[in-house]
Amino acid sequence: MSERSRLRCSLCTITFRHTLISFEELVQFARTEGFDGLEVWGAHAVHLYKAWNGSKRALLEGAGLTVSMISDYLDVGTQVNFADTVIKCKELLVVADWLGTSKIRTFAGMRGSREVDRAEFEETVRQLRILGDLCMNQGIELLVETHPGTLADHKKAAYRLMMEVNHEAVKLNLDFLHMWEAGDDPLESYELLAPWVAYFHLKNVTSLAQCSVFQPHQVYAANGSRKGMVSLENGAVNYRPIIDRISQSGKFASLEWFGADPIRVLKEEIGWLHHRLNRLHSV
């Protein structure tokens, strides 16, 4: 396996949304533990841009790290002010260029694929194409996350959406757990969606009944439930064959941890992932 084709791994700055830690400390931690980059939450990215001018990018480069993606939310659908979405997208593109990243993550609306009518689906497709044009003009890819309550909430829905959008700059951020949550086999989902998959999210849970802990209102609340959040190795989704399959993809994957004690957990998670990849690399 060449280093160029090897799976690379980022930590998510949203992991530390309720933790008092500086960006400098995050960069140092990521470098020490062998991460390849940082997935920067949109709110954090904008703050860094406004508050710190160019110094933070230099800090990342000096540590041998990259910003693998900005994760934000560009509102689309029939019930949004799309003009505001376009303005936000343009602002994010400036921040993305400043951070040196080529990817912005978003959701395909806030309603599930089985909830929308044809008109809403077509309008969302139209809007994603417009956002795709804006991103493509700046050399950026717009990644739609596979996520419950969106138009990419299961593998066939994500496939249909990508086929309809049909835009070279609009790709997918594949969240394996959410495909499993939808009743789809994670690896079969990857095989179907592979032409569009540009990034991976990795997280796990003890059982299907606990997947509600990943709902936005739980994640963003400081006192939200974290019950059921577990390591990749110990959850209901079997990540061993998944890591084996994507190990030579050359893409980035983010360890998306929303639970307690993030420093300890991420140390253990990246250690497990490196061990798995090194074992494959030595074969």
TrEMBL record:
Coiled-coil spans in chain: none
Native species: Paenibacillus oryzisoli
Protein name: Xylose isomerase-like TIM barrel domain-containing protein
Residues in Xylose isomerase-like TIM barrel domain copies: 28-273
Gene3D superfamilies documented for this protein: Divalent-metal-dependent TIM barrel enzymes
One Pfam entry name: AP_endonuc_2
InterPro entries assigned: IolE/XylAMocC-like, Xyl_isomerase-like_sf, Xyl_isomerase-like_TIM-brl
Superkingdom of the source species: Bacteria
